[in-house]
Amino acid sequence: MVDIVLAHATVVTMNARREILRNGAVAIENNKIVDVGKTENIKPKYKADVELDCTGKLVLPGLIDCHVHLAQALLRGCADDLSLVSWLQERVHPMQGTYSPKVGELSAKLCCIEMIKSGTTCFIESGLHWRYGFNEIAGVVDAIGIRAALSKKLMNLRGYADIPDAIVESMVEDGETTMRQTLEMVRKWHGKANNRIHVWFGARTPGGCTVKFYRKIAENARKNRTGITIHLGEVQQDIKYMRREFKMTPMEFMQHCGVVGPHVIYAHGVWIPQKDFRILRETKGTVCHCPASNLKLASGFAPIPEMIKAGVNVALGCDGGPSNNCYDMIREMKLAAIVHKARLLDPEVLPAEQVLAMATVNGARATLWGEELGSLETGKLADLIVVDQHKPHLVPVRNPISNFVYAANGGDVDTVIIDGKIIMQGRKVKTLDEEGVLEKVREEGLTPDKRLGLNISSSWPVR
User: Which one, 9, 112, 187, 440, has the greatest CB density within 10 A?
Assistant: First the structure.
């Protein structure tokens, strides 16, 4: 007897042999996958409480978004078509600086619903300011059933790269306080919700922390056996700052500070030079590629194919509402796959299969769930998605992987299972009142704008 059997699917296992099973099936008991194989072999073996007929559908591991700003879902469209400094100092930071825990909680609900409905089952939050309400946001993750590493933002300087006072007053936090709060959240939330919630250290970008403080972050992350996430090499100013102040490359500086290891994710990595690839490979860190954000903010083109060729683990992330405008990992996969073909004038780089690996097994390697996520295999955690291919834009199917990466979108995800529980079925989220959240967003989503007296609209006349 098992809890769930998904039958008659095209099962994309992402196992070591990268097997794809026609008329495949997956059996789930409690929160684990107990069997994967052909439907004719799986169905006779198991009587299930719930059997899902997945005829004409893909079953894949849940997508893993390794760079998310939960609090920015409410800021979608707040700073479009602005340069980075104006984007940050005139819109994003001032607006986030108006947040209360109530607003942060609403943004987290909106973001989690969007991620679930587009196939993300696990994510890494890049750094929560205390004013967003860490406890409230962790409560949202617990209730909705998604898997997450929630990072508390840490800082003891006000800089951003080579801009010394970039952080606006409302977003400044004290180093000692941020460390105490992070350790409190580790004790309270790390491993909770059947180990669906982890707590990480979200170090600010170089310019926001002293070397001594980075070393303290690294020490405490090791002691608590948890992760670190940091924006690194996103903009050219990062490189200039580290070269001027420390005469080091980004990864030389990270190594100098002790912020290296398989538990560290470096977001963006646009301007990380080739000489740093060796340090990344040897320390087993992960670069999280965020192509939509990098393109929209004109940050540049991360050398992703070159990193992969050098043996660096590269995962994928959507970033946030102001820099991407959506949290759809399927759209992000397509963009990652095609932008580097044009950049390198080589249509063979980053094939669809490699990009899907970035969003699944590579992302799993970057998380503290490690070997438990990223593929559909016996003994793995039951985090998976069902994609409906019975759509005009998804037929005929020749290569199911390229079809998924190049033609699908988040709206094609029909069912989501996380930790062995059906979180969404028939595109209806079961664990949260989606319509109630959307109504609340319609009523209160522009609260930051109102508090700052902003009237953000189109440059075209609106009557």
Answer: 112
Q: How far apart are the C-alpha atoms of 117 and 240, rounded to whole Å?
A: 40
Q: What is the pLDDT averaged over residues 440-455?
A: 96
User: Are β-strands 2-12 and 57-61 bridged in parallel, bridged antiparallel, or unpaired?
Assistant: parallel
Which of 406, 382, 430 is closest to 144 using CA atoms? 430
Cα–Cα distance between 80 and 344 in angstroms, integer?
A: 27
Residues 251, 259: Cα–Cα separation, whole Å:
9
Structure tokens at 92: 């994003």
Return the number of other C-beta atoms located less than 10 Å from residue 5's C-beta. 25
Contact between residue 358 and residue 33 where contact means Cβ atoms under 8 Å apart: no
**What amino acid occupies position 110?**
L
pLDDT in tens, 316-363: 999 999 999 999 999 999 999 999 999 999 999 999 999 999 999 999
Residue with tokens 């998904």: 6
C-alpha dihedral (162, 168, 170, 173), degrees to nearest 10:
10
Task: Please provide the distance, in angstroms rounded to a whole number, between the alpha carbons at the two ends of the chain.
Answer: 61
Q: What is the pTM of this model?
A: 0.98
pLDDT of the residue at 136: 98
SS3 state of residue 72: helix
**Domains of the chain listed by start with CATH number:** 2-61+376-429 (2.30.40.10), 63-372 (3.20.20.140)
User: Counting Cβ atoms within 10 Å, is residue 19 exposed (0-12), middle (13-18) or buried (19+)?
Assistant: middle
Residues comprising the chain, all counted = 463
